[in-house]
Structure prediction request, 267 residues.
Amino acid sequence: MSRNAEELANKIRAIVGPAPVSIGIILGSGLGHLAGAVEGIAIPYDELEGFPHPKVSGHNPNLVIGNLEGVRVAVFGGRAHYYESGRGDAMLLPLEVLKALGGDTMIATNSAGSMVPDMPTGSIMCLSDHINFSGLNPLIGTQTDARFVPMKDCYDPKMREILIQSALDVKVKLHSGIYAWYSGPSFETVAEIKAIRMLGADAVGMSTVPEVILARFLGLRCAAISTITNMAAGMSNESISHEHTKAMAPLGAAKLEKVLRAALPHF
Ligand code: HPA
Prediction:
C-alpha cells in the first residue's frame, strides 16, 4: 500500500467519519445517477491528490462515501481510462484508497457494445470473465512477485451468484457473458468485432479489465456489470458514438441500480 493512499484515506476519514467502507463501486459513462442515490458526502477528485482527472464527458469525478441499502460504500463517479493517458494503472491509487478505507470488494460498471443478437441496447450483463483484447497490462513495471496475479475466477463466483439471484428477485433480466477490453478511444472496426466474437466475447468496451487486474493485485473481490448502449460495429445499423453511449446508458442504468440495490446487503 502506498503512503499516498494511507494519507488520502486519513484525509477522507477526517471528512466523512471513521466508519470503514466495505464496497467500492466504479461508475461507467452515463451511470452517474447511482452516486446521487447514496446518502453520504461527495468529495471532488480534484481535492484528492493523485486521483485521476477524467475528462470524459458523462463521468462525474466525485468520490461519494455513504450508505446504500445499509451498506457503507465508496462510489467512484469517474474513472481514468487507458486511452486518456496511455497509463493502464491510473486507477491504482483510488483502489488502494478503497482498501485503506477498509474496503475488500470492488464492483465495476461500464457501458459496452453487444455482440449477442439477443442482448440488445438497454440490456445489462454480469461479467463472467474477460478477454484482454488490448494486450496491455496495468501491472507492467510492478516490481514484486505479487504481479503474477492469478485471474481464474477474477469475477467472484459467489458475488455473481448473488447478482443473478437478486436480478431474479427484482424481475430484471440479467445476462451473463464475457467482456472484451478494447483500448479505444476509436471504436472497433467491423473486422475487429468479427474477430472478438470468434474469440468468444459477448460484449466489448474500453474499461474495467485494467481495474479488475489491479483490484485482484490488491486482493479485492470483484464483480462487474455492463450496460449495453449499442450493438457492436457491424451488428446492426444503430449509430455508434460517445453521444449515443451517453444517451442510451440510462436505459440499462435503471435496471442496474435495481439489481445492485437488491444484491448489496448480501455480498
Ligand atoms: N465499443 C467499445 N466501447 C463501447 C461500445 C462499443 O461498441 N459501446 C459503449 N462502449
